[in-house]
Amino acid sequence: MMERLTGAERQIALMICVVMAIVGLVMAAAGRGDPMGSHGAIVLIAAGIVTCFVLRAIGEPEPAEDRTTSYYDDPTKAGLVIALFWAVVGMGMGVWVAAQLAWPDLRFDAAWSSFGRIRPVHTSGVIFGFGGNALIATSYHVMQRTSRARLAGHVSPWFVLLGFNLFCIVAASGYLMGVTQSKEYAEPEWYADIWLVIVWVVYFVLYIRTLARRNEPHIYVANWYYLAFILVVAILHIVNNLAVPASLTGAKSYSAFAGVQDAMTQWWYGHNAVAFFLTAGFLGMLYYFLPKRAERPIYSYRLSILSFWGIVFFYIWAGSHHLHYTALPQWVQTLGMTFSVMLLVPSWASAGNALMTLNGAWHKVRDDATLRFMMVAAVFYGLSTFEGSFMAVRAVNSLSHYTDWTVGHVHAGAMGWVALITFGSIYSVVPLLWKRETMYSWKLVEWHFWLALAGTVIYVFAMWNSGIVQGLMWRTYTDSGTLAYSFTDTLVAMHPYYVARACGGALFLTGAILAAYNVYMTIRHAPEKRPERDYPTSSEATEPAVPAAE
Questions:
Q1: Model pLDDT for residues 237-290, shown as the tens digit of each residue
Q2: At which positions is heme b 1; low-spin bound (predicted)?
Q3: What is the CATH number of domain 73-245+257-525?
Q4: Would you say 75 and 157 are in contact if contact means Cβ atoms under 8 Å apart?
Q5: Domain-wise residue ranges, the chain
Q6: Residue set of the binding site for heme b
């Protein structure tokens, strides 16, 4: 893939690798005896590996292709493959975490394998490793096709993709070593956070530059969602991770916030990470790949725009519903609850818009497992957003909070919405990118769909039941006013549900492994097809269209 860079671009890539190697060497030397030193070694090794790839191509002839007549899909291809790798790793860690709760001896009596260390490896591996790489890769693809313009750069897409994965590796390895800020979805320490800011700024600039050079006057709504995801996540990450390092030669840092301000900042970040990383970005996927696969225009383009602005405005205020019955001022709790309930309108607008787009194409949903992934994802998006608004109500939250009901809600969104729309998008785009007629095996796609759906339903129903039982047991009192059940009693009651959760997660993981195998075989063994007309200056009649009536 490096052979497609010009000589000047290869030299720039080599300079970046050298700078990264120096940074890694300095970190390794300065942080001896500290986890920071280990991370420096990881940075040095990563820079060395990429340097080898660049050096292998440094003397190759200049690329002969006319860049004005083709899209740049190499980073997209790599991003999709890496996303599937993280899917297997992250979901595999999730099954291990779930199994530990059912059978605690699976910890192996080792510090690195304790629940508190491998649980963030699971969450970060799935959210950032799997979801993040899928978002970056599909955004490259969608941005070029809907803009009819090639990516505005050839080094920067690789810098974003590989730099983001370096962040993921540093984060995951840090968790196993006990490095954490103890912030939900924001555990990496200060130097990893700074690196992610650099990567994300380059990503934002790349996206804006590509849109600025578009040959299509209209900016399709999928790009609105992707751009909101990029911009707002940057703001959230920077504010929530403001911290003072204890030492420039060590990993430990201290948050710039304290007490209730720290809690409010964390959940402003945490809930909006769900809003803009796990919702807005994946709605960008939905609004492109579902109409494309169904070969139908989006049902209502106006509704998609109204939904966008509703989500952007309402979501940003909703984070405080995570802090009901705490020291947070009552009016702030009520504000979060109110906006959470109002969020139901734009969220269901998007889910309904997606399902109405399938009018006239339901026979395709029946026959096409890829489209079925997307349809079920839209259904789970509607269900999980309704549940989230419902759980934000203070009276409901008094029962649900701190229980497994919340875990079930999160995974209804993560497995049923995020993962299913991602797998559907991957199955839709892989044959196109690798110029194949079809996936290697559509039977495996069918198997994956039913395994994923069964795993999600088993997991979510187990956690719903577990959470409601937990909440009721915790608030049951005897006639004398003491708690009727001990904490141990609740653990015994939860055990069957924890076994069911581990089984549901194992089914979902099996589906992800089938997906990775199917994609690998499609790339390696599927017969070639003749390249289609797929270049920037053509009229993209098959792109998601705006209905004339709109």
A1: 999 999 999 999 999 999 999 999 999 999 999 999 999 999 999 999 999 999
A2: 122, 411
A3: 1.20.210.10
A4: yes
A5: 1-59, 73-245+257-525
A6: 122, 409, 411
